[in-house]
Structures are given as C-alpha cells and as structure tokens.
Amino acid sequence: SLTPPAPSATPSSPATAALPAGPSSPARPGGDPLPELTLSCFTGGAPVAVHAVRGPAVINVWASWCPPCRKELPAFQRLSQRAGDRLHVIGVNSQDSRGAAQSIGEDLGVRFPVLFDQGQALQRALNRNAFPLTLFVDGQGRVRHIDASGALDDARLHELVREHLGVAVPA
C-alpha cells in the first residue's frame, strides 16, 4: 500500500483552474496542485490523500478494459523498478471492477502502488476524460504535464520523465 509522505511545511491550496484540454498539453508554468481528493488503496491499505503526494511522481490512470492501458502498464512497472528512489510510480484504476483490475495487474506483474477510483473523481477534478492518462508531478506536488496521447512505451516514458521532472531513469 502507498503511504502518503508527511505533510509539507507549506500550506496546500485546492486546485482551482482546470487544465487545458487536448491530447498532451503542458500545465501552467509552475503547474497546478494535485486535486484535493482521497482515494482508496487498491490492496485495502489506508486511503491516500492525492494532494499530499510529493514527487517526483508519475501517476498513471488506467482501466482493465482499455487496450492502450494494458499495453503500457508493463512500461510503468519497468519505470518503477528502474527509477528506484528517484521517482514514485503510482497507478489509479478508474471506472473498473476490482476483480478485472486485479486480474490484469497480476497478469502484467504490476507491483507499484495502485489506488482505486471507481467514480472517476481524479479525472473529473482534472477535467479530463481520457484513458490512459498520465500525470507528471514535481517535488511540490504540482502537475507539470499531463499526457493523454495513448499507450506510452519505455522510451517515451523516460523522455517525458526527463523533460518534465528532470529525472534521468536508467534504460
């Protein structure tokens, strides 16, 4: 299960501005804070306050019924393994049944932390309805980039992490 880090000394503010729509659009300069949401841990651990997540982090929103999501999940698992302590990889399973999601996760060897968002609260808060959806979050918990371009492969994922989070992940 994912344990949220201790709250930072700076007060967090709720996300007020919607991010621009589009397949792959940059966040505002400085980025928007993560939404004020709490999601269940998929494995039944303590619920996680999404806005308390501090990066650098990559948050991948996926569903078992989404072919591009299934295609890219192994790349996120490899990113999680290769990045070690330099980067958090977090999954958010949305609009799905626990059974179907668990089955896909087991089939694909997903071991990074996954949150459960049956009601699509995260996507609604971000004003995005795409699958898959990937958020790149900096050390202050601000969304630096959102990608909805389709299934990401290892090379593109590493490129986006380097470009938007300044973290080089070994190949």
Overall description:
It is built from 4 helices and 9 strands. Strand 5 (57-62), helix 1 (67-83) and strand 6 (88-94) form a beta-alpha-beta unit. With 171 residues, it is an alpha+beta fold.
Keywords for this structure?
about 25% strand, nine-stranded mixed sheet, about 170 residues, alpha+beta, 9 strands, disordered N terminus, 4 helices
Outline, from the CA principal axes? globular
Write down the oligomeric state: single chain
Q: What is the distance, rounded to the nearest whole angstrom, between the alpha carbons of the first and last residues?
A: 26 Å
Helix and strand pattern: EEEEEHEHEHEEH
Measured as a percent range, the helix fraction is 25-40%
Helix tally equals: 4
Roughly what is the average pLDDT, rounded to an integer? 83
User: Mind summarizing the main beta sheet?
Assistant: 9 strands, mixed
Strand content: 15-25%
Contiguous uncertain segments of 5+ residues: 1-28
User: How many β-strands, per DSSP?
Assistant: 9
- Structural class based on helices, strands and sheet pairing: alpha+beta
Task: Calculate Rg over CA atoms.
Answer: 14 Å
